[in-house]
Fold each of these.
Amino acid sequence: MLKAILRTGFEHVEDGFDLLFGPKWNPLYQLGALGWFYYWIVVISGIYLYIFFDTGVTQAYLSLEYLTHEQWYAGGVMRSLHRYASDALVVMMMVHLLREFAMDRFRSSRWFTGIPMLWLVFTAGISGYWMVWDQLAQYIAIASSELLDALPFFGESIARNFLTDAKLSGRFFTLMVFIHIALPLILLFVMWIHIQRHSSPKVNPPRELALATLAMLLILSFIQPAVSQPPADLSMVPATVNLDWYYMPLYPVLDKVPGLTVWIALVLGTVFLMLLPWMPPGKRAAAAVVNLDNCNGCSRCVADCPFSAIRMERRSDGKAYEQEAVVDADHCTSCGICVGSCPTATPFRTRSELAPGIELPEAKISALREKTNTVSAQLAGENRVIIFGCDHSLNPTDLSNEEVGVVTMPCVGMLPPSFIDYVLSRKLADGVFLTGCREGDCSFRLGIRWTEERLDGRRDPRLRARVDTRRIARYWSGLTRRREFFKELSKFQGKLEDLLPDSNRGGGMEKESSDD
Amino acid sequence: MIDPKYWLGQIIAFSLFAAALGYFSSSPSYTYHDPGLGLLMISFSHSSERKEECREFTQKELNNLAPNMRRPLDCPRERVALHLELIMDGDVLLEKAYQPTGLTSDGAVSVYESIPVAAGEHEFRISLRDSKRESGFDFSKTRLLNLKPRQLLVIDFREELDGFIFKKGE
């Protein structure tokens, strides 16, 4: 229920962003890539700041004051970029997390590896604020060490070190520098692990979007430069501080709730989030299976799998082919894109059982052909259209009518192009309409992209040249673009009416030579 | 190149995002301590007395011990609770017992208390009991101090330095 509300909300917001940016540059489709981009800005600006940073109790503050005021055109801008890109990174990360949950894309190891990043990003960010040693740093130093003191591991109170200036050493800032550099490096490693199961991972946003977001950060840095608060003075209580609310929303809670309670909530919350992919009611569909009798080791499924869940290994059945596809069931999302890439998944096959080299046990390609034939048999009228759609977009069950039949599958990328040839050449329908998730935001990452490339003849298996592409339409509707979907469908049916003389229209299945 | 028809919308969207980044990176300000009050922090670490006195092992007991574990005294590890009391201008601000830390209750007590107090001149009397006595205190100190708003008064305790130490920032 919560997911459905969130998803609908996201899709409506994304509709607006699609209008503003177009699908290619819609930032909501680029959250992960933007996160990477902000990370690199933080790293580059951080390296510059590190050159000038001094690790002394008073020198730390003074070195940043020098950068901010004396060197405002370079050091000041770098400091502001460092802060605002860090804040933007938190925004991207949190929206990314929420969106993956809303879109039901969290049932995978990617979610599991993403959660520890929350700890790393927040801890790295807070340690950075600590290094400034202004009144905000004084506040978070005391509040953070009081939180650490709540753990039963430390004998002596850590917070005691921040009660008088005499107890504070410059070496403390050296330690903070080490932490502030080490944590982002660990974060980079976890980010690398996070995308390991993505083929063609998006780690760079489109250049135009990257330039625009960099320009935004630069302008913001000039308009509102990041500055320090008054220097820390341990003899006085700062009383009022300007928190960075992206990194420190927890601190006001610390003033109200006992530290141990906060720790318990944080640890339980983290464990809950990490285990979320394996919690009910999620039911994982059966993973794709390889049928060696029909696998010729062409490796197209390996190239097309969006989650690197298939690999090629030495042939095990003694056939003349060198290799065979092997599915890693733990990482298979059962999207069926591999089936759509398999050259043996052709519905024209009649002399033997339709069992391609790879397929989904719960959504067999033979059942897809059967469904297509059944839907076709129920169609009547002048402009008969079969819609091939995915289970993650518009609910297609109420889309069908006398002239329109609907066949769905886990992802539209599961549809081999030969199915379109099959429908049109056998006159099962007058036109084929493809729909699915939104352009740029396929639920299985690459289903729409591969489908378009296959239909446009840019990727194997290609749509045969004999197919009249004017009788094929595509509209990537997602969940919310229902009205536009019907408009496009109606336009397509009108086009079919102009396109097809009556003699070309069919009334059902026709016999054609097998492609076996 | 970006399609010109998207320019205006993008500028609005980026401006809103930048405004949100700029604002929430340092606003709204957060007040966690009443600026009109001073702050009194009591922080120290101290081991209280053992619950039971050490006693000499009998010869029989020593014989039963492994040679490398033979020592003259048997000292039970458990320590008594530490009692602290703070009185300001005759009003009790803090009266608390702290249990020794550690699995066998033999560790030092770590006291860390923060108490906002009104600015102005106050008489502070702080007392500590770390022995087996039932009432009264083993250490006590009184000071008349003037606290400014937001000023921090730290009360430390060092047994070797005559007990309580008052440290006030200037």
Amino acid sequence: MDILIVIIEIIVALVWIQQGIVRYQFWNDGKPGGGFVPVIFASLVLIAAVAILMREVFSKKNKETYTFQPGAFVPAAAAVLGGFMIQVLGILLSVFLFNTIWMRFLSRYSWVKTLISSVLFTAFIYGIFRMWLRVPFPSGFIFQLF
Amino acid sequence: MGNFDLLMQGFGTSFTFANVLLAIAGGFMGLFVGAMPGIGAVTGVALLLPLTFKMDPTSAIIMLAGIYYGNMYGGAYSAILLNIPGDSPAVMTALDGYPMSRKGRGGKALFAANISSFIGGTVGIITLTLFGPLLAKVGLKFGPAEIAALILLALTSIGWLLGEDPLKGIVASALGILISTIGMDSMAGGVGRYTFGSVNLLSGFSFIPLVIGMFGLPQVMELMAKKQEGESLTSGKRLTLKESLLDRSELKRILPTAFKSSILGNFVGFLPGAGGTTGSFLAYVLEKKTGKNSKEMGSGAIEGVAASESANNAAAVGAFAPLLTLGIPGSGTTAVLLGGLMMWGLQPGPLLFIQQTDFVWGLISSMYIGNVACILAGLIMIPFLMSILKIPRGIIAPMIVFVCIVGAYSVNNNMFDVWFMIAAGVVAYVMQKHKYPIAPILLAFVLAPRFEQAIRRAFSISNGSAKIFIEKPISAALLAATAIFIFAPVIMKLVKRLRTK
């Protein structure tokens, strides 16, 4: 995985350098062009990434291995689901459902605790973001139909 | 009339019941908004600006200054409690504040943040009172070459100082700079850069979704990986208010750091365009290099919180000097305040101090009131904030995730920021697991646009000659410091090796 990350870094650096020189110009009319800063720092990424790659390949030290924990990615997946829920149901209903589903089925709290917590949290989000800070919440695709 | 007499006259204007009330209300609102992950000082002030539309300019700016101040205090709270910095300067606070919370010392971190913020604010206001106009002139000596050299010094030290592996630190910092180059190139008439044909990327990535994603989401991912649903954020440690008060030895640890950092932060605040992030970062670096407990920093040292918070608040006040005397905002938030001033028909610049003495000194005197109001409000809020630490992880995890979503959404009111926040979170989690430090990405992201603007302007002024950086004494000294910073560890290592041989 370490090597994969380094390869991604090298690819990103090469794209930034190529675009910086060819498209945005490193130096233009006797002064720095749009590619000046990106090319310099992409080159730095490239040099450092290659150094890390060499170290990873040639190092004889015992490497710490990272064990993939699928549980860690549950919040990210839930956030993606939450994002889609917002687009379909709007923010308020999504907050309530999101919190309820998580607390009841992932954290395994009782229905009473779950519902009290969800109602309070929805009121908190509505009170702070919508009423006080006047953030325009999306109403959601379903509600727009009516 | 001397500055002291003018200040007293200013107190006459600001010390009315209504204005004191407005300063306190502003402080409370600022604290609350600043503590909300995803809002931050700039957005907070911008969102609350309409509240002041119907007030007279002096009362309005007094309230806005309170909000601004409160935001600076509040930004640290979410950084300490949830590892989600409310604003960019609080990134440095999170480095030690959150580990303190994890060790059951969150209350102490909050107290230290409040006291340091108060010291930073007080040092800043006194300096502004005594030397404001004068220091603004010194700040003017910092042209593009000097600003570029100063930010380069900060950027260079980021990678080396944060994290276990300097090479990975350098990659992280440089990646932060590359991310910041996505979007419009303002120096080239708003041409899109590295947008790869995406309309969403034309305006670049916003800092708030990036910071929420990189700090907030990985936090919950880590909680879920360990599956300790029933535990609170402090791993079940008992937290009482009494235990959270700072004892004499802790006060002794933070006071020198806070004063030292305040002076540095205040000076950085005076520089047009340098900002509180540069101030808090340089103060943290100074503490890490010269402090007694430098080895502990990054893993829950109270000095880390003190350095960052005092410098950040001192810089916040310092930024008022170029704003009022030159009309140049020193930070994003003061840029919003500049907009407010102009809306009320006030033209910041050297004449403001002569033509609008009531307003200027009313504002400066209100800062004293605002600073006291904020520390009181902060201390009152600590017991409530500490109760957040007692909430079981199974309850707080979904709440953090959804606050991350709403916080990211509320920046530009679009879903693109939400998707970006989630992606940033996953990338940050994977990078953290492979020993890449995350703070340098964020700090470089904030500092890079200012650096790029300054360096390109400097080259434009000198018609492409790099001599501009060496000919000017301030930039030459800063570049020399940068070189020492880069090469000193390497030379020291070589000398050590030669000695052992």
